[in-house]
Amino acid sequence: MTMHNNLINGQWVEGKSYAPNTNPSDLSDVIGEYAQGDASDVEAAVAAATAAFPAWSTSGIQSRSDALDKIGSEILARKEELGDLLAREEGKTRAEGIGEVARAGQIFKFFAGECLRLSGETLPSVRPGIGVEITREPIGVVGLITPWNFPIAIPAWKIAPALAFGNCVVLKPADLVPGSAWALADIIHRSGIPAGVFNLVMGRGRVIGEALVQHPGIAAISFTGSVGVGRGIAAACVASGKKVQLEMGGKNPQVVLDDADLAQAVELSAQSCFYSTGQRCTASSRLIVTDKIYPAFVEALQARMAKIKVGDARAVGTDIGPVVSQAQLEQDLSYVEIAKAEGAVLASGGGRVACHTGSGKQGFFMQPALLVDSTPTMRINREEVFGPVASVIRVSDYEEALAVANDTEFGLSAGIATTSLKYATHFKRHSQAGMVMVNLPTAGVDYHVPFGGRKGSSYGPREQGRYAQEFYTTVKTAYTLA
């Protein structure tokens, strides 16, 4: 069995213990044993990053750009290999895994360019003979805590800007899927970046994450994960004066109006709700459908769902892989039962299934579930399930659809299917979400534009694109007497 160690100060450091990384498509397949660190590993990683920061933060921008470009190039060159690993450990299909890896490579290459594009301002003072310079500087040692559903893309979109702007990093990846993060750390380690600039500490969130959040040497925390954990991190960071960035939950609406192209609306809904096993924070889980198109839409979506093949994530022809873990599967199934008990009708799927490849391998497979005749107050429409479970809410018109769409504590992504320019324009302006999709799936965003939401979904500056500088830099204003 291959042992995978933590990376601290440019050295691979043995863990205090090790945990298996198991394939959710085949529970007999153990990918490897991954180190389980403790608070002493965090202490060593922060010390290494702190020591490396003065030189790295003032290093030449070309050397930083070259290193990030090299990382991106290797990721892209190995996208099929790494995509297969991602599918094996997380459960999204191999094609989706390859796409995620490619995105990670593109992110590093984008920020290789951002190293060279960081700008400032020169302004005249209101006082004669004085000049003013406004510049951006790195903030210090950054703790990054990433989730299991995008095990290489989300680490990439946090690590790349942090390094590009001169910060040093301690990464704590999701304990459930450490393989992709370890492979990324290995690529970064061999890129020529100085020891201590990037550190990887794997282990339990309540151990490693807690130590990062509480450490006085950490200047900022960027976290993607659950609402409860995120709110606890926010409180701790505010108390200690750390900068904090949070991406948390979603209960994303997909509105379908009477005038929508039915085939298009059905396909984008199927993609949004069920692909990647519904394990995307931008996935639609509330389908808000107006009266006249409601019966035809439900019937057509049921027919589309019947064609979805659930099976081994790495097998040819699989549309949807397994749920990531036993605990997640149990949560998904429990929400189906809760919805039924509250009066929703299970129209399609919703049960545990055997692997459709015929291999007989045991995995966490679930047939996508469609619940109809639900109401906005039901738990299925209030709480994030994070699985292949969608509910349909029937409304009378666009105005009611918009009100229902906004009736949530979350505000990450929202979509509308319509051929009306009037309604599309109004929805883009009045949807209380950070990202809005018109006639497109709610899940799926570009790597060079800002990512984030409103209300309970996000806190702090946006991630990705040029907007990443808002979190990973601090502004300095300097005056000079001529």
What this model shows, in words?
With 482 residues, the protein is α/β, with parallel strands linked by helices. The protein has 2 domains: 3-248 and 457-481, Aldehyde Dehydrogenase, Chain A, domain 1; 252-438, 3-Layer(aba) Sandwich (Aldehyde Dehydrogenase, Chain A, domain 2), CATH 3.40.309. The protein contains 14 helices and 23 strands. It has helices spanning 39-57, 61-77, 79-90, 94-114, 153-164, 179-189, 205-214, 227-240, 262-274, 294-305, 326-341, 398-406, 421-430, 469-472, and strands at residues 3-4, 6-8, 11-13, 17-23, 26-36, 121-124, 130-138, 141-145, 168-172, 198-200, 220-224, 243-247, 252-256, 284-290, 345-348, 369-374, 389-395, 410-411, 413-417, 435-438, 454-455, 458-459, 473-481. It has a 7-stranded mixed β-sheet with strand order 15-16-17-14-13-19-20, sandwiched between helices. Strands 10-9-8-11-12-22 form a 6-stranded mixed β-sheet, with helices on both faces.
Summed up, what is this model?
With 482 residues, this protein is of the alpha/beta class. It is built from 14 helices and 23 strands.
Which key features would you list for this structure?
single chain, 482 residues, alpha/beta, Aldehyde Dehydrogenase, Chain A, domain 1, Aldehyde Dehydrogenase, Chain A, domain 2, 2 domains, seven-stranded mixed β-sheet, six-stranded mixed β-sheet, 14 helices, 23 strands, 37% helix, globular
CATH-level-4 superfamily name of the largest domain: Aldehyde Dehydrogenase, Chain A, domain 1
Largest sheet geometry: 7 strands, mixed
Assembly annotation: single chain
Number of helices: 14
- CATH architecture type of the largest domain: 3-Layer(aba) Sandwich
**Uncertain spans:** none
Overall pLDDT, averaged? Answer: 96
What is the CATH class designation of the largest domain? Answer: Alpha Beta
- Helix fraction, binned, reads 25-40%
Distance separating the two termini: 67 Å
Radius of gyration: 23 Å
Structural class: alpha/beta
Biggest sheet, spatial arrangement of strands: 15-16-17-14-13-19-20
Overall tally of domains:
2
Number of strands: 23
Find the CATH topology of the largest domain. Aldehyde Dehydrogenase, Chain A, domain 1
